Amino acid sequence: MARRGAGTPFLLQLSLLLLLHPRGTLGCASVVVGSPVVPLGSAVTASCTIQSKLCHGLEQGKVQISWMLDNKPVAGSQHRGPGGTEVSNLTLPHFNHTQARLWCCVEWNGTKQRVATAEIRAGYPPAKPFNLSCVLNLGDYGLTCQWEQGANSHLPTSVVLKCSGSRTQAVTGCTPQGGHSRCTVPRRLLQLYRDMEIWVSASNALGTAESEHLCIDPMDVAKLDPPTLQSIQSIPFQTDCIALAWEVAQGTEHMELQCELRYRAPEDSAWALVPGISGRAGTAQHCGFLFGTRYHFQMRCRRSSALASWSEWSQGRNYTTHEKAPTGKLDTWWGTQPAGAGGRLEVQLRWKAPGWREANGRVLGYRVTLSPRRRGRAPPTLCNTTHTHCNFSAPAGTTRVYLSAYNAAGESAATEVVLLERKGQPLAGLWAVPGGERSLWVHWETSAAPVAAYVLEWQRVTSVTSEPGHCSACWQMEHDGAATAALIQDGIEPFQRYNISLYPLYKDAVGVPIHTAAYSQQKAPSHAPKLHLRSISKSEAELYWESMPVEMQNGFITSYTIFWANNIADVASATVNPSVSSFVIRGLKPSTLYKVHIMASTAAGSTNGTSLTLVTTVLDDSEIQFLLLTLGLAFVLLILLLICFQKNERVKEQLWPSVPDPANSSLGKWVPAALQEPLLVPAAREPGPAAISTVTVLEGTPGKQAGKEPPGPAAAPPALPRPYVRQEGP
User: Fold this and answer.
1) Which end of the chain is more exposed for a tag (fewer CB within 10 A), N or C?
2) Which of 457, 588, 575 lies closest to 511 in space, CA to CA?
3) pTM for the full model?
4) Could you count the other beta carbons within 10 Å of the beta carbon of residue 79?
5) What are 514-533's pLDDT values in tens digits?
6) Among 418, 451, 470, which residue terminates a domain?
């Protein structure tokens, strides 16, 4: 069974090869379409004819024809044709493929077999080419034309450039290669100094389109070589005018040329253009240049024809105009201190350098005087410097000084600086928002009193100092008294805090400043503050930390969060205000180890600090104090009791009664000495403890106390009774 099953696929493959044999396929099936190229979206008709007699394997049985468009089945209608053929007709009402293959299939052995095919393409007629222009190259006199093709037709399109003379037929001038929209007509097909007609023709299976015809003399569109600038110089009596001289390209001396001049200063973003210069003149003059300014000049030419092409711009040439004394007034700002013991007024004067349009050259320095300069008379000079700030002493009562700038050509008119007092009305509000990574927008509320101008000061805040003023250039003046906002761009860095002050300038006074602080961009702090332990008990721990340096904050600190956890991972946290620098953790367990750390947060992120390990105590301080106090009191009471017992005889007698010493008793005195010797026990008896059963005490003479004898003569010792000792057995 296995061998039989394995042979079945082989027989199917063999039958399929016989069916698809070239003689069988080409001879027994064919597909005919109404048109192999149709407009996109139009209807397509096709028919498939099967000759069963010529198809091996289909001689017997009914033939069933089906259709497939690429790999998608489509339905057709089948009928019997002449000569025993089977015919299937297909209509596709909307053909929306730009290219597809239509297959005719037959049912054979339970499967669909493709026996014939036809390829169908769809698209649009070619679009009309436009923007045709041509340039004649004087090197090889070839005419290079370029154009824009238009919309894609989705069909193979043939594009050629055609040309014709006044007496010649239209010929193909050139064919673009590689899908480009440009080609070059060779010199042999051109008629120089005569009008020619040139156009672009595009053709595909659905039609032909031509561009607008261009009628030109090839020499009118010749692209010339650029001219050469030879010299530039200022006109002596009119220093804002210059004279230029140039030489046209070789071989164009006999042509009528039209030229253009362009120039710009380094500070200019766009070129200034001077049109309508006659090329054959060789020289030209132009006025309106700034004094003491370096310019870059270039020139180009073309034939005097509307269709002529411009040459490339010439090599540039630099020239600096003559200088002139600076013009205009300078923006100034000042600060004063009251006159000291010497009667002098200390003034800190700052100003902005003139713009390059007002400087009229390179400024060499600035001069501050007590009075304006008069003819033939030099005023006293308070300061002469190359910087834009100056500190000097003026006589007490000075209300005005005069500032001027000078260059190699002269000195500007003096700018009067009125040293007004800072006692005017302050503004109602001031705030700042980021204007970019390196800029700040400052907004304020206007004053009820009319304001002539505003002065903005800003200073980067550091941990060393937070007072503004040590940056002499960190200020700007807003001349519009009605303004409510200004953009600060000079010296602004991201992640740095700036203190901003705003001064309104009134007619007769300077307003009291208002202040704010801002960041142009914020991020998480560089590090968090370090925690320190101030005190600890069995249930509480007091922590404190020092403020971070402002350079490390990278933004406004919004909060501090303290986290603590014990060894069984009971984690808790608390968030405090950024103005707080200490915190008390409550509810801790006695004699437990905790790990604590702090997190500092800004609006842009947070940073964790290092961990602090602490262990709570067994008892609180109050409990320890109470225990020590109790022990101390007990010890004191004990000492007092001992002292009392020692001093009180009655208490002493009750607690420690007096026991007589037998050695000092009366008995010991009247027993003979012989009887007081040790009693010898016979050696025949075993030694053992003696049991005393009866002790007889003999009382003395009545009225006498033991141990006390009245004085008198010595008496003979009384006769003592013999001791009676009773011993019992062991």
Assistant:
1) N
2) 457
3) 0.60
4) 10
5) 999 999 999 999 999 999 99
6) 418
